[in-house]
Write a structure and sequence with these properties.
The chain has 620 residues and is of the alpha/beta class. 48% of the residues lie in helices and 11% in strands.
């Protein structure tokens, strides 16, 4: 969210400013200056018309109507604003909480909002005013309750846009409680349109509150507001129209001021130019744990519902990482790399379901933990670096807040201690602590990515999942980020799962490489074999597509011919069969398992490429 700029110097803005200033001045000084005259009866001047002494005439007790209208400004405005603020607070909290609630609670809350919206707000306000009792308090509470559904629906709609953002997913990875997610990550990002709505709603509430007083359900004598003054002068409208119309003009003036304020703010904003997790299914019996593994995944499968049926974009994935190891996960876009990472982090989008035989992080079987225990273990043991730091960082919070909230939530660190750790984390990623006071939009792309890495280091994770962290960066910054991750691996012994479609970068940066195609791993090998020892035809094609500085520039770049299989119509055989130059009948009938080729090399192919590779392709 951009910082608010100055109001545009347009005639409407100036007029709105003057009108609001006059209302504020009258609300502050009206009772002090004209209060005595407004309450002083004069039996010799009862029900007089406009005159030099009484410009708007007098009422049935001879009191000056102009003084009473000016004095009533404070009560009329304060009661209307109170009704709006109460209704907006309750409605916004009700609607915004749908972004952080579980599936069942979110559905019940949405149903409640729909039910409340079925009743007209004005009729609800009149009914509740009778229930609460005639008077200022009852009228305010009635209008506040009637305004809750509208604000709740607006907040629900806005919060749905925040629910699917990367920065909210990053906050979930940190294991923040729902109230923190709501106050720090949802509400600040929907505050601007809500404030505009509240501004215009204040004018509507003023008119509605005056209407209740006009009907005798609002402010009661001896108190008075504009609505009651309008009601008292109504019986004189034919004989003396000014005393009857003057309170109505005051209501119109104030309501118009609030509406124009909303228009000006909305124009200024224009010029500046949804996702709870699905419940995890019951996993199959877990395999015994292997000693020393940071991450152990066996037979991971992800299912996604679509309008045309359920698809399995990830199936049968198995991988493991040891302390201090950097493993690359490569493949074309859509091969299932990011979904694999999200399934490990328990961050799959709504409706997605993950099943696995084994999923252990730092020796803990996640399927054996309660939801609360699993969230805490993932928050402190795993850190995720998203592809786009601009969306992964909350634009409305300072860097200091985003770095410190995890340690304050999980380790109970004080504000000063957390700030000191955040400054140290920035130094470790070669950033000055002065950036703690900055917001994400004030940083460059490389700085934002370093802040993301620093955020992950705050909880001292055993596993870092970097989901294409260098895609949007230039080559120089890419080199800095990969070198930074290498140094952090060396200093902290954290394992790193590095997801990328850049085969050359993985070849330089990682120790092992897992090649993924159509949701499954088709080859796993040490990275030093990637250039000239790959045996799967798909891996060979990926390596061959890496640009070579010695290649003929007059020739088109090599590509992997064909297209990935349709996930809605999976074939029974090898998923690469339609694109494979070595395919045979068996390839179309039976999918090959991921089998050992030697001690460190595994491949899923019935007819792998020969060991003697053609001319080596450099990955530099």
């Amino acid at each position: 969210m951009s910082p608010p700029s100055r109001l545009p110097r347009s005639p409407m803005a100036w007029a709105t400013g003057v009108m609001l200033a006059s209302l504020i001045a009258l609300a502050l000084i009206g009772p002090l200056v004209w209060g005595a005259a407004a309450d002083r009866p004069d039996l010799s001047a009862v029900l007089q018309g406009p005159s030099a002494v009484h410009p708007f005439g007098t009422d049935s007790l001879g009191r000056d109507l102009l003084a009473r209208i000016l004095t009533a400004t404070r009560a009329s405005l304060l009661l209307a604003l109170a009704a709006v603020l109460l209704g907006a607070t309750a409605g916004v909290l009700l609607g915004a909480c749908t972004a952080v609630l579980g599936r069942r609670c979110r559905r019940l809350t949405g149903g409640l909002i729909n039910l409340l919206l079925a009743f007209p707000a004005l009729l609800v306000a009149m009914f509740l005013a009778v229930v609460f009792g005639a008077g200022a308090t009852g009228a305010v509470l009635a209008l506040a309750a009637a305004g809750v559904p509208g604000f709740a629906r607006l907040a629900q709609t806005l919060a749905a846009g925040v629910a699917g953002t990367d920065h909210l997913a990053a906050a979930r990875v940190l294991g923040l409680r729902r109230h923190r997610l709501l106050w720090r990550h949802v509400l600040p990002n929907i505050a601007e349109p809500l404030l505009l709505s509240i501004t215009t709603a204040a004018g509507t509430a003023l008119v509605a509150l005056s209407g209740l007083s006009f009907l005798g359900l609002g402010v009661q004598p001896p108190g008075y507001d504009w609505g009651q003054l309008l009601s008292q002068g109504l019986d004189r409208i034919y004989a003396e129209p000014v005393p009857a119309l003057a309170p109505g003009l005051a209501i119109l003036y104030a309501a118009l001021a609030f509406q124009l304020l909303g228009e000006v703010l909305a124009g200024n904003v224009a010029r500046r130019g949804p996702v709870p997790r699905a419940p995890a299914p019951v996993p199959a019996p877990s395999r015994p744990a292997e000693d020393g593994l940071v991450l152990q995944v066996e037979d991971l499968t992800v299912e996604l519902p679509t309008p045309d049926g359920t698809i399995r974009p990830v199936h049968g994935v198995s991988l493991s990482l040891r302390p201090g190891e950097i493993v690359g996960l490569v493949g074309e876009s859509g091969s299932g790399k990011s979904l694999t990472a999200l399934a490990i982090a328990d961050l799959l989008p709504y409706g997605a379901r993950a099943s696995r035989r084994t999923l252990r992080l730092l020796g803990e079987d996640l399927s054996a933990l309660t939801q609360k225990e699993r969230d805490r273990h993932l928050a402190t043991g795993l850190s995720m670096i998203f592809q786009n730091p601009a969306s992964a960082l909350n634009p409305s919070l300072r860097i200091a807040t985003q770095l410190t909230e995890a340690v304050r939530a999980h380790r109970g660190a004080s504000r000063a201690q957390a700030a000191a750790e955040a400054a140290d984390a920035l130094r470790r990623v070669a950033l000055p602590p002065a950036l703690l006071r900055s917001r994400p939009h004030q940083l460059s792309g490389g700085q934002r990515q370093r802040v993301m890495i620093a955020s992950g280091l705050m909880v001292r994770p055993g596993l870092i999942i970097a989901d294409e962290p260098t895609t949007a960066l230039d080559v120089t910054v890419q080199r800095q980020i990969t070198q930074l991750l290498t140094d952090l691996r060396r200093d902290t012994s954290a394992a790193i799962l590095f997801i990328s479609h850049d085969v050359a970068l993985v070849g330089e940066f990682c120790e092992r490489v897992l090649v993924m195609y159509a949701g499954t791993i088709v080859e796993a090998m040490p990275v030093d074999r990637l250039a000239d020892g790959a045996r799967h035809p798909y891996t060979r094609a990926l390596v061959a597509s890496v640009p070579d500085l010695t290649a003929d520039r007059g020739q088109p770049l090599p590509t992997v011919e064909g297209a990935p299989p349709d996930p809605l119509a999976p074939a029974p055989g090898c998923p690469f069969v339609s694109r494979c130059p070595r395919r045979q009948d068996r390839c179309a009938e039976q999918a090959p398992p991921l089998a050992d080729l030697d001690t460190d090399h595994r491949i899923a192919c019935w007819h792998p490429e020969p060991a003697a590779a053609p001319e080596a392709v450099t990955t530099s």
